[in-house]
Amino acid sequence: MDTLGGAEFVPETTYLNTSTCGLLPRRAVEAVRALALSSATGQPDGAGDFAVVEAARASFARLVQVPADRVSVGTAVAVHVGLIAASLPPGSEVLLPEGEFSSVITPFTVRGDLKPRYVPLESLAAEVRPETALVAFSAVQSSDGRTADLAGVRAAASAHGARTLLDATQAAGWLPVDAGEYDYTVTGGYKFLVCPRGTSFLTVGEEAQESLVPILAGWVAGEDMWASTYGPVGELAVSARRFDQPVPFLAYHGAERSLSLLSEIGVGRIHAHSTALAARFRAGLREIGHEPAGTGHADGSAIVAVAGLGDRQEALARAGVSVAVRAGNLRAAFHLYNSTADVDRALEVLAG
User: Fold this and answer.
1) What kind and span of H or E run contains 264?
2) Cα separation of 130 and 321, whole Å?
3) How many other C-beta atoms lie within 10 A of the C-beta of residue 344?
4) CB-based contacts of 324: which residues, under 8 Å, 6+ apart?
């Protein structure tokens, strides 16, 4: 199976580590280089272009199937989650999966006056109760690639009047995501969205926006940004842009080009490609006597983890195969720039 993206990607290793950091396409590298050069030489556009940021916002919105006015741009998932955590009333119960990624959990725990409750991922929908204010969880678990019961959690939250916060960081870019089905979604851009580090996206439903306090608001959150540069912002943006953080232009100039590439290829094609490679890897692991983690809940994932092989990471690295170790699991992730040759090379080293 050939790669998608053609000459946009130039890996020098067998790169199976997108869950840690995605590879940048050539067009993103060129955009960052061009802006950096403009900044270094005093060109008029060296500070960055807000039109490019708006194009990135619109591209991400299309990828997750919401209007662009429901998307806020920022720098990190934890910052977006912190904004949501700060808006919850004291004593609110936040339901979380056990072993969830820390950026989804910690903004709630550091407040000290909320009630986090942890349950197994597989029981998340069944554990929503009338006193649950928010269910916060990842679409795909970082540690082992398990996928959540998205429809079940949404239905349970709706039945009990709880809001939903979905972290799509390990999903958006290969798994079709409809962000409009959740009150909030947060997505780090530097993994499967193949954007530079320093890019992240928050989506906010219109109803949820009413209770979210824009505590990070600066001039870029004004309805008229250029009339909001001095004194208190007179009118915040009516859209989710009111939650924007000042953007790092170098990162967003690259992100706009990365997201345009994903849009050109299509998440549907990337999903079919990535999950087929992951299925090939799982089958190969079983043939050499290793059972992938999360069987039954991760079989359709582009992320494959296996317990007991964490000590093989160094051998794989010496052989030019890049993977990660998370929660004791050897973790491989497959994306548009991978091929069957990558799968077979990793299996060859593991079998040796």
Assistant:
1) helix 249-265
2) 48
3) 14
4) 17, 19, 20, 313, 330, 331, 333
CB-based contact 78:106 (threshold 8 Å): yes
CA distances from 295 to 121, 335, 345 (A): 13, 20, 23
Place of tokens 């530097």: 190
CA–CA gap between residue 352 and residue 339 (Å, rounded):
21
Contact 142, 329 (CB under 8 A): no
Q: Which two tokens stand for residue 56?
A: 């990135």
Instruction: Tell me the mean pLDDT per 10 residues along the chain, length 352.
Output: 90 97 98 95 86 98 98 98 98 98 98 97 97 98 95 98 98 98 98 98 96 94 93 95 95 98 97 97 96 80 93 94 93 98 97 88
Helices 340-351 and 267-287: crossing angle in degrees, nearest 10, is 20
Both tokens assigned to 120:
């197994």
Instruction: Write out the two tokens for 351.
Output: 């079998």
